[in-house]
Design brief:
The complex is a heterodimer. By secondary structure, chain A is mostly helical. Helix content of chain A is about 70%, strand content about 0%. Helix content of chain B is about 80%, strand content about 0%. In chain B, α2 runs antiparallel to α3 and α2 packs parallel to α6. Classes of the chains: A mainly alpha, B mainly alpha.
Chain lengths: ~100, ~220
């Protein structure tokens, strides 16, 4: 009986040591009862707002400026073509 | 035409002042700095709605009144709805990433805005690649695009969404209201100028087409 008990203890020794070790190495964090406030999150989980705001305003400006530039180019091309066709009509040239 | 040059000056001055007002506006208590996106995001969204309405009304006038000038205004307004929609569709996810933790949510407001934006894309594609007679078909698309505006606007009140409701602007703090309405006015002035220039481009194109026809007839 004692021999069997000792054998069982020896066989379960790795499991016992694992349970003990895991208990020592990873202490359980205190349970949260609600949400964690954003400003108490670890540094790597906090997203900086400044680049997002800068990107939003930068994109808005870039989109408007690019559109104005594209409008200016399209208008210039049409006016050039208009002048060219008007000249051809005045000179009596064919199509 | 006489108002155009002074309006360009006004728009430049307003766009120069707007960032200072936004920077000096108070921080929103829960979102902090990222809430500053609101001033351009909502202003461009309202300008997109305005442009969609202008496109729809002009397209309906063209469909039922056969006025070529109305078609030119509709085409210009549809392009501007896509332009201001682009600002909304970029600035929104940048704000959402910080406020909600995700770039995008398939909720009623975001999805209906995307659908409306795509409707105006389809208007432009139809006009460009639809061949002869596509003006009438695309005009019908613009009417439907304009009809989507009330659904997009009230979607936040009708369905449960993560997007704030339409109650935000009426209950805005007085210190934020000034910069916000200034940004909206700035976008509206810019919109009026861009619409005038874009419509004049369409008018010039129509003149060019008639000149080419005159040249062909000789």
């Amino acid at each position: 009986m004692t021999k069997n008990l000792l054998l069982a203890l020896v066989l379960t020794l790795p499991l016992q040591s694992f349970v003990l070790a895991s208990g020592v190495q990873t202490p359980q964090p205190p349970a949260h009862e609600g949400f964690v406030p954003v400003d108490q999150l670890p540094g790597q989980e906090q997203l900086p707002a400044a680049p997002l705001v800068a990107a939003a305003y930068g994109v808005a400006w870039a989109v408007v400026l690019l559109y104005v530039w594209s409008l200016w180019r399209r208008l210039a091309r049409v006016e050039r073509e208009l002048a060219d066709v008007a000249r051809r009509i005045e000179s009596g040239a064919g199509p | 035409v006489r108002l155009f040059t002074p309006l360009v000056g006004v728009a430049i001055v307003m766009f120069a002042i707007a960032p200072f007002l936004v920077v000096n506006a108070p921080y929103e208590s829960t979102m902090g700095l990222v809430q500053k996106i609101f001033y351009f995001h909502v202003a461009s969204a309202l300008t997109m709605f305005l442009s969609a309405f202008v496109a729809a009304i002009a397209a309906a006038t063209f469909l039922f009144g056969r006025k070529a000038a109305a078609d030119r205004i509709a085409a210009s307004a549809a392009e501007l709805a896509v332009l201001f929609g682009l600002i909304v569709m970029v600035s929104g996810p940048l704000w959402a990433r910080k406020a909600w933790g995700v770039w995008w949510q398939w909720d009623a407001r975001l999805t209906s805005t995307l659908v409306m934006w795509l409707v105006f894309h389809s208007y432009l594609l139809l006009r460009r690649y639809g061949g002869p007679g596509s003006e009438k078909l695309s005009a019908a698309v613009a009417v439907f695009g304009g009809a989507l505006v009330p659904f997009v606007y009230w979607s936040v009140n009708m369905w449960r969404t993560v997007h704030p409701t339409t109650n935000v602007i009426p209950t805005l703090d007085a210190s934020m209201r000034g910069p916000f309405y200034f940004c909206v006015l700035t976008f509206f002035v810019l919109y009026a100028l861009l619409l005038a220039v874009r419509t004049s481009l369409e008018t010039q194109r129509a003149r060019l087409d008639s000149l080419y026809l005159a040249l062909d007839d000789r």
